[in-house]
Amino acid sequence: MKTFYRFLVTLGLLLVGFIAALALLVHIYLKPEKIRNLTISKAETLLGRKVELQKIEVGLFKGILLKGLTIKESDGQTDFVRLKGLRVKFRLLPLLRKKVVITKAEIDSPYLRVVKDRKGVFNWETLKILKKEDTRRENGESAASSRGKAFGKAVLTLLIPNLEVRNGKLLFKDETGDLPEMEIPFEVKASLSPEGLSARADFELFKEPFRLVVKVKDYLSAPELEVNLSGQTLDLNPFLKGSGFEKRQVSQAGTSRSSSLSSTIFIPVAKARVEITLTKIIYRKLALLNSRLIATFRDGKLTSDFQGEVAGGKVRDHLEADLRTRVPSWKVRKTGVGIEVAEILSGLHPDLPGKINGQISYEGEFAGAGLSLEEVKRTLAGQGGFEVKPLELSGIPATEVLSRLLNLPELKIILFSYGRGKFEVKDQRLFLKAELVGPMLSASLPSGTLDFEGYLDMPFDLVFSPGLSKRLTQRLPFARHFLNDKGEVELTVLVKGPYRKPRVILRSRPLERRLKETIEEKLKGLLGL
């Protein structure tokens, strides 16, 4: 019994001595002065910004606690990054080998202020460490390789199996007015090891919750990235306020071709997979439901598949892009089934005059090059087909003009049983061939164009029903010259100009045929044939 008692006493003394030795080692190896110097001096050297630290606490079991850590803006006054507290816990045994193996890191109430100034420069772009990365790239050394060398030469091997960020807040401000001001609360749980990084972030955007899950393998050599973003409702309309989005598109369209060609894409990963799942996306007054995007990147090639529901129908897109060239090339296949045309038009262009009702289905394949709006417009080419049934046109500017010219109020609302056709995109224009069949009126479009500025050039060949032809000839007797052999009025209606204020020009095919026959007979008589 005495032996066992002595064993317990000896074990207790050894444990106390070991803890005391570790505590002494912690205070020697991790002195608050050294930590302050490491935190402030190193951070100021790397960032080129003023760094403040209110208090440091060091303990054997509680680890290291930094209170009131602040990184200032370039002016040295405004807070760029602010942490209420940063606690780091570590394993004790590795300290004997002069290694700090972190078991947990906790960040309490971080605040990050991101500002884009009137010149379009972000406040983080002036950080000194980013300028060093640019210098390395100019010298042909990748950022990943330089970080890997620094990691390998480090005296302390830092592992963070458990990182937790609580009560975070990101403040974004755009002084150019392109983007809205945003205050984004967030929380993060992450793990970092030599094998990889995994992280989960929960955040709110305009008070809507989202979750972002990120995994990275081999981040020091050939990073492999996996990203999953999910959420309920993403409202894009705040990004359109003040026409910021439209201004950017116009600005891009006005850039020179040489400037768009000079842009290159830098993707710092070897492989990537991105999946985005959103219950609802709101753009203007249009809602895209149950959308899902899966994109993969490997060997410089990007592939993505998208599906969703809009305006009572379903849409699918498949995209393939080659990002290895100076100007990326891409091709996309687009499919839509059972989409309500009226809902699409009222959602995207609520001020558009007239109404088009019907369900459209389409399929097309497109190709192009570049990423700027100018390059896409210049290189876009493709073809496909469509069908709308039934189709109802009411209050359309062109049909309103036609109704007045022919004194036919019946043409203010036109119903077609179906409309189908083919389209081709090239030379910044849309070429259309279509046929429309209805009980009152049928129409064919042998070849029409619509340019990217919205200018129409559409020659429609119209055939009126016998009943409508009779009413027309009664109201306009000269319309009898427009009758064909079946007693149907035939007209070619040329619609030119913008959709809202088109010019409508009438031609009579039967009358032209008769005039041609009469002229030919006269000529034959004169020539004695």
Automatic annotation (TrEMBL):
The keyword Transmembrane helix is assigned to this record: yes
Keywords: Membrane, Transmembrane, Transmembrane helix
Swiss-Prot/TrEMBL GO biological process terms: regulation of protein targeting to membrane
TM region positions: 7-30
InterPro entries reported in the protein's UniProt record: AsmA-related, DUF748
Highest taxon listed in the record's lineage: Bacteria
Cellular component per GO, a single term: plasma membrane
Protein name: Uncharacterized protein
